[in-house]
Each structure stands twice: as C-alpha cells, then as structure tokens.
Amino acid sequence: VNISILIVAVVIFLLVLHHNFLGLSDFLKRELSDSNPVGLQPIDFIPAVPQRLAYERNDKEISVVIAASDERLGGAIAAMNSIYFHTRSNVVFYIVTLNDTVDHLRQWLSKTALKNLQYRILDFDPRVLEGKVQVDPQKPDTLKPLTFARFYLPTLVPHAEKAIYVDDDVIVQDDILELYNTPLKPGHAAAFSDDCDSTTNKVAVRGAGNQYNYIGFLDYKKETIRKLAMKANTCSFNP
Q1: Around 79, how many Cα atoms within 13 Å sit in the side-chain half-sphere?
Q2: Closest Cα partner for 234 from 190, 170, 204?
Q3: Are the C-beta atoms of residues 209 and 216 closer than 8 Å to each other?
Q4: What keywords does the record list, in alphabetical order (predicted)?
Q5: What is the C-alpha to C-alpha distance for residues 223 and 197, in angstroms, rounded to an integer?
Q6: How distant, in Å, are the alpha carbons of 15, 47, 109, 127, 179 from that of 173?
Q7: Structure confidence by residue, pLDDT tens digits, 153-210
Q8: Burial (Cβ within 10 Å: 0-12, 13-18, ≥19) of residue 58
Q9: Which end of the chain is more exposed for a tag (fewer CB within 10 A), N or C?
Q10: Domains, in order of start, for the chain
C-alpha cells in the first residue's frame, strides 16, 4: 500500500511539473513574439535604444564616411557601432582604408554584431597626395595618407547630395539623422563649432601660440585666401 501511495504521489508531482514547464514555455513564446529587437543582432549586443527608434524609420540614404587605418581599426569599429545602434535610418558606411587593411577590416565586420551593416570599402591611393603635401623631414612618419581622405569626399561618394565624415575617435550617442538634417548653405563644405573657448578647438601653432580661429591655420597674406572673404577670427579647428 505504501509503495502504491508513493507511486501515485510521484506521478502527481511529475504531472504538476510538466504543466508548469508548459506554462513557462508559452510565456517565453509570448515574450519573444512581443519583443522588437533592433535588427537581427544577438541579444547580448543590443544596447539601450531610445524609445522613439522603435517606430521611426527613414529610408533616405545617409552616407557616413570614416577612415580606418590598421593601427586605429578598433576605434573606427567603435564609432560605426555607436552610429549603427542609435539610428533606424538607412545609414551606409563608406570605409576608406589602405590595401593592407582590407582583410583585417572584413573580419571585424563579419564576425561581430555589425555583420548586417551596410558598407562599402574604398581603397585610398596615397599617390593622389604626391606634390600636394609637404613632409617634415624630421618627422616623416607623421604623414598619414588617410588623414587627407576627408578632402576627397566628392570623389569617394560622388552620388551623395550630402555626406558626414566621422573621425575614428568619435562615439555617437544620439540619432545621426539629426546631424544629417542640419541645414547648410549652398556651397558650404562644413559646419564649424561656435565654441571658441573650448579647449578641444585650441591647437598650438608654431610662432602664434594656441589658436582657435582661421588666422591660426590660413595664410592671410595670400590673395587667394583674402578673396574667400572669411573673417580671420572665425572659429575653427585643426582639420
């Protein structure tokens, strides 16, 4: 009799346990069907996304250009990651690099949460700089060809009405669509900061001390510079 009672008790326990598992399974299915993760990325890589991005969608292509040198590849990946996970816009990255970096770059992009990123890899030919850049003979290694990639935006993305160039040490913390929609007057190549007091804008210029305006970077003795009609005290920064 005791054995029969024990068997009945075990069967009842197993039935209750089975019922609880079925209930948990249904609950998890409902949770997964109700969730709306960003893209198809693994859950471990989904950051806290602003609520408005769950329902906003912009199909206009936003061209973002970034230079990715081999020694700073991690920074470039971090910059792209911060842009990608803070927008629902149709961002296409144009990654400017040198030939010896392409294979390494493709590995970074194919084996991380950025595998669904829209991008094109553009090989930058350093020969375009020949005769255009003065090299300091005392510091020949300071000349990095990709530093000058930003000046070739019309060549790199010829079809784009507007493009955003991002340095590889930038982390974007909001939707880049807002920056893209910033109005620029026709013929203007860039928008500069108005904060001349910012320490990040000040650059030491030989013979002139810390400078944070055009006169620190442009030679106003040249007629071609004067014809641009840009005020010498206008706020600027190194690039």
Answers
A1: 20
A2: 190
A3: no
A4: Glycoprotein, Glycosyltransferase, Membrane, Signal-anchor, Transferase, Transmembrane, Transmembrane helix
A5: 29
A6: 51, 11, 21, 36, 12
A7: 888 999 988 899 998 888 999 999 999 998 888 777 776 656 666 555 455 555 454 4
A8: middle
A9: N
A10: 62-181 (3.90.550.10), 195-238 (no CATH)
Residue 5: phi and psi, rounded to 5, are -65, -40
Cβ(96)–Cβ(65) below 8 Å? yes
d(CA 6, CA 11): 9
pTM, two decimals, is: 0.63
Closest among 94, 71, 72, 97 to 83, alpha carbons compared: 94
Cα dihedral 234, 236, 152, 93 sign:
negative
Q: Which helix (H) or strand (E) holds 26?
A: helix 2-34
Give the β-pairing of 163-166 and 58-67. parallel
Separation between Cα atoms, residue 64 and residue 82, nearest integer Å: 12
Cα–Cα dist 176/88, whole Å? 10
Outline where DSSP puts E strands in the chain.
Answer: 58-67, 89-97, 119-123, 163-166, 203-205, 209-211
Q: Please report, as a single letter, which amino acid is at residue 229.
A: A
State both tokens at 137.
């003979």
List, for the chain, all residue ranges whose pLDDT scores fall below the cut of 70. 16-59, 140, 191-211, 237-239
